[in-house]
Model the fold of this input.
Amino acid sequence: MPPNENIARLRLEVLRRELHHHAHQYYVLDNPLISDGEYDLLYHKLLNLEEAFPQLVTADSPSQRVGSQPLDAFTSVAHTHAMLSLENSFSDDDLRAFEVKLQRFLPDVEHFSYVAEPKLDGLAVELIYQDGILIQAATRGDGRTGEDITAGVKTIGAIPLALCQPHHGRLEVRGEVFIALAEFHKLNMQRGADGEPLFANPRNAAAGSLRQLDSRLTAKRPLDFFAYGVSDPSQVTVSSQSELFIYLANLGFKINKQIKSCPDISAVIEHYHFLAQLRPELPYDIDGMVVKVDDFELQRRLGNKARSPRWAIASKFPASQATTLLRAVEFQVGRTGVITPVAILEPVAIAGVVVSRATLHNEDEIRRKDLRLGDTVLIQRAGDVIPDVVKAVPEKRSGHEIPVAMPIVCPACSTPVFKKEGEAALRCLNSSCPAQVLRSLIHFASKAGLDIEGLGKKAIEQLVGEDLIRDIPGIYNLKPADLAHLEGWGEKSAANVTLAIANSRKTSLARFLAALGIRHIGEVTAELLADHFHTLERLSSATVEDFLDIEGIGAQMAESLALYFADPATKELLVQLMAAGFQFTLPPVEQSGPSSLHGATFLFTGSLQLFSRSEAKEKVKAAGGKVASSLTKKVDYLVCGDKPGSKLKKAQELGTAILTEQAFEEMLAHS
Ligand code: IVH
Done:
């Protein structure tokens, strides 16, 4: 029996508080206290309860993190305080000159102390909290007006939907949204596998992810956030930048670990050199250091210029660039047939890494940069991302350079290439092209597909090379004896892989669809399709119109799906896979797990009628809750029996939730 609304409200409150707490531990403090599975169970309890009581869904509920219906366009948001940019400095002398300017501007100030912070290479955003709840988020835009990205920002785990401490009134927190390098690489690998264009660097990936009209896609991106300021220091009770960081951390924000309080400009310069050294080891991109005068009152007196504050400066790191020779251009065929030009370079060291290849994206890029074989080219590495060719250096030309010719046939199967009007990419349309088949196989078994352990890129290349597999169904015909004698294999690994292959046939329809690697169909769309059609039979006989009826599926995807399922080769593939014994599991249902009282603290007062005191305490503990001995802010619920006395009044003052004995009993029954 579902609980009544009051009980549901209380239970939702406990669940939300608990989920917020665990998200903070996980995303902000990097210190998870429960397993992902336990978190999911709590989360599903929340979803089920919210589904039964949709009127009780709040803006700060963790369920709001999954993204919402796509927007038609972003609306603009006027910043109450302009989001300024920073002036740049490039040397120790520039930093000393910065201090001299401060002294000139405020001659009565004898001494300046500073805070020196990494300059994060992401996207500046403003988060607006009203009475502790995140109500709006905006990009910087032109500094005065940005775009409303609230829906996307809510999906970022490191951004609190509700502050951890009470904060009355408005608070505008500023900081940087970014993607960590490791996550960026994973994302790009996945995009490569999905036949999507790669992001040039983590910054672009973060910007592209945040500026999605469909925030359900943003939710799938590994966005992260560091807070570094407030738009108006009068919104907080602290009086300096260094204190602000502690204040923001207490409110639940993630604060960068490499921030340093510097008593003087020499300490600032020292930290700059320290960060420059540390940079290659950091798990995220930084492009310099930001120096801020620590004291808010001094910041106020120094004020702003038109575009930047006088009290802060960015100290940039030298760019990671080098020039080298463009020796050749190779053409790679991707899974969906897209042909990508790759620059083959005379190897050159950039920021400690030898670079010999760089992506050239597509023909338009080559023409725009007027690149020629034999050219001296400027190469750039942002962090440790795929190197990029910035431009040719025409001054170094001898006259013997040769314009890059695009292929007229596929380099892997010699089928004439195809270029759709309005698209930059060249494509090979032969679905049995060996390069495409190899990439499809790699994708099918990869993490983005069925995640078959032991069947990574190298293994697939080897098995295709040995002619043991020619297509996806071929994977399911492999026998341990086929593998055991191969180089690098043995009886055990052969048995393990064949077992993993057999197990992979039990999967969800969504995962299976994602593994097929249909053009434009990634994990999110695969889920939409599985939720809508439930069976492969219904899905594979749907029309373009049927696909278009699904919210979140546009014309490009619908056409790609219809084309894919109409192809006789697809029909044959699906028949063979079903014959191999695929079975689709239903979406996961809620199982019993940790109770929803988990983490909540109770206190009892007055004389209880339904239980003895010790019985009541036992029940709370058995359901995963805690019992307090006195009334403090840590108490979530005060359970009142007869004659509750002074505790009741105090609980009302503290805003603690108050339960009657009956409500408590019902809560236990549903936990
Ligand atoms: S303070 C007026 N602190 O740098 C103060 N900005 O050119 C400006 N940035 O758009 C912001 N890390 O995206 C500040 N620790 C940091 C920063 C930082 C990166 C970016 C921010 C802003 C740009 C200013």
In short: The radius of gyration is 29 Å. Confidence is low (pLDDT under 50) at residues 588-593. The chain is about 35% helix and 20% strand.
